[in-house]
Amino acid sequence: MKRKNRLRLLLALTAAVFPCLDAFASSQREEPLRAAFFYSREIWVQDINIMQQIGNSIANALEDAPEVSLSCYGTDSLTMDQAVRAVISMETDVLFYYGLDSENAKINYQRLLDHGIRLILVDGDIEESGRFAYIGTDNYQSGRQAVELIQQEAGADARVGVLAPDIDTALCSVSSRLDGFLTAAREAGLSVEGTCETTYDSLSAIKSIRKFLETYPDVDVLYCAEAVSGQAAADVLRELGREDDLMVLTYDINSRIQEDLMEGALDITLSQDTEAVGQACADLLLELAKNRGMEEGNDVFFSCIPITSEDLEAGAYEE
Amino acid sequence: MKNKKRFCSLNRKLLYFGIFLSGAMIFLCLMFLLSSQYLSRQQNRLLHVQEAFSSLTEDLNQTDSKLYAYAQSQREATKEEILRLSEELTAAHTALARYLNQPIFQDLSRLTQVYQSSVKKMFSEETPSTGRRLELYQDSVQDLDIIQALMGEYRQAVVTDRILCQERLEIVRKWTTAVPLASAALLLIMSLWILRRSSRRITENLELLTERADKICQWEWDISVPQKNVIRDEVDVLAAAFYQMQETIQEQIEELKAKEALERKLKETEVAAANLKAKWEHARLCTLQSRVNPHFLFNALNVIGGSAAEEGASTTLDMISETADYLRYSLSQLDKEVSLEEEFQNIRDYLSIQKRRFGKRLTYSIFCVPEILEARIPSMILQPLVENALIHGIMPKKEGGEITVEAYLLEGKAHLLVTDNGLGFTEERRMELEKRLEQEDYDDAQGVGLYNVMERLRAFFDRRVSLNLQSDPGQKTTMELILPAYFKKTREDEDEKSYFGGR
After folding, report:
1. Searching chain B, which residue's CA lies closest to the CA of residue A76?
2. Could you tell me which residue, B124 or B222, shows the higher pLDDT?
3. Chain-chain contact of A89 with B142 (C-beta, under 8 angstroms)
4. How high is the ipTM of this complex?
């Protein structure tokens, strides 16, 4: 066979084989794993929306992963019922959601299970939900971590006031922190003088805290179970000129909390590592996309990172 | 030709340049065309997205209101309208899912499909009651509420997409304007640069060649040849050939100069040799002269002449006087130029002396036309001829003979003839004599006088002399010398200098 004919044959074969290979690859390609991430756009504290941060982090981590198709929804008006109905209608494989401890939530978790939709909780864990996995901050442990920090900074005989919105809140994250804190405080013999029930409305929170301090003027430490209480406590102490008298420990971080830390109105904040949580979620999705028959995913618990004014001065934290 | 691989003819260079220009132009046109198509496609896409999204939201609202109306009234026209709207919804969410490749629009598509199913449920039952219809409507509203609750996200995604798309389009528009302009400018600069570089290279070579040619025209050959290892095009070939030609011509000129110098040297050597020979001859004559010791001879002849006069021997006195004159002439004028008149006088003296010796056996006559008397010749030219005629012609003849010496002018040349009626010579002898006279060296004792006469005449007249020999043995033998007729003295100082050595 002449060289020219050989070349022609090779080109013809290439032209024939490549479309076949492409067709074969297409037939073998699975539909991407469909995941939905619902979070509320409502922000109680400026710049702090842990769910949104985790959602963005997952989306970023999955940017170049065609095997997973993630829909992130930030809504104000979607109830849990609607969210669950939506993911059922959308025939989604995985739902990322808050951990809510309520009867309605349990019914909805069950609906998800009935429709074979895997639930991954990212902000507050509730094992009864039948979740596929929990990936997020270890809130219970973060409460215990707060006790250790108070003991280190204020001593074992410090008198503590607890500030938390609605102690019976359905948000498992806050209740877990409180549970962990109170358990550890009891174990450590830390004196919890009183509990102040705040709200997610900062003005109401300020009033409640002001009243609490009038009732318990001798408390040495204020343990704030979330950021709204923390910022309100800082405002009240600044107003009373008692920034140096009391130690205030809160959660999460934004520019306002950084300022409060630098001014001494706040002493420590326990920051959640949303980037790491998002990355772990993405890893689990990718694993699930490879192995669609997985019954249960691995839970991943992240510790909070304590940040003080010294850390900020040293540049340890960058927003 | 060195490095042939790098040779590229001007024609080929122009072809490459043309291909480069054409390619660049095609590239620019393609780029412009593609970007225009892209812009058009993207704008169409934006329109379609907007249209589909507007249609979706409007159709959802209309469907809801029509469905509520149908639930209450169950009018067939409303049903038809709802079904039409449902079709439009399908088209809208399909278009959105196609144009916006985001997971949330796949979700929207499914949510809409679920809503459409809820809507169609209304028509699936044959005769539902109003209460049942309202119940079914409520079911559909729950699905619609979800879509409405998520609509903000979809709207934001559409807006974000539009913004991103418009930003992208803006960038493409900018590039569409800027890149072809910049490319065209770059292309123009590159073309100019290439043309300038090529033309400079060509003209540089040509200028150099012209400059060299000018110098050659001014006969400036001493020009160094530039060394070029690479021949790139025809101009280089031309230049190389020119330089090679120049080198060759230079070499040939050098060779010619060397040859000319050699010839000059050879001629000088020849002249020097001739001078040497003449000097040798002169020296030989001087030697002979010194042998004769003319002073002694003249003194002796004067004493004899004085004695003859005292004794009254007038004939003896005449003879002595003639002999003295002859000897004086022949010895003192030997290496000088004289007038023909002087030469003839000497011949007259000589023949007079010989007449006294031979008596009646010798008769002679001398004739010279007056116009030629002042013609200049070397001395002692005729005497050897006359002596030859006497000794070889008349003397062997018992009854003697006659000798005639004459001279005349013909066509600017002097003709000197010595004629006798002696024995003469045969034709073979004549040819032999002529042959000997032509030879450079003559070593034969016989005829040496004639040979010497010819040599001296050749030297004096720059070889423009000839000798004709004719003989009719016993009747008439003629020796004719034909010479240029010179009438001015060629020597200022006749007494001191010899004409030997060239004129």
Report:
1. B149
2. B124
3. no
4. 0.77
